[in-house]
Specification:
Helix 2 packs across helix 5. This protein has five helices and no strands. The radius of gyration is 11 Å and the shape is globular. The chain is an all-alpha fold. The protein starts with a helix and ends with a helix.
């Protein structure tokens, strides 16, 4: 439970749109993530707000596909 609370706190960002998407993701998908998915999500949360938003909205594309599974879930949220 502590990890869930910590993740919810880290989802509070400076962009309202990002807050909404991340909270939806937490409600819909977070509990189903495996260890690899949790690590991918943590890596995405480490990005600056604008970079993360650009990835979610597909304005920016990552050349490495290591974060793609969780990124696709975020894009659906």
């Amino acid at each position: 439970m502590k990890e869930l609370e910590r993740a919810r706190w880290r989802c509070r960002r400076g962009l309202l749109e990002l807050d909404i998407v991340l909270q939806r993701f937490m409600d819909q998908h977070y509990a189903q993530l495996d260890e690899e998915g949790l690590q991918q999500f943590e890596q995405l949360l480490a990005l600056p707000d604008n970079d993360l938003w650009d990835l979610i909205t597909a304005r920016q594309v990552r050349t490495d596909n290591d974060l793609q599974p969780v990124l696709e879930l975020l894009q659906k949220s």
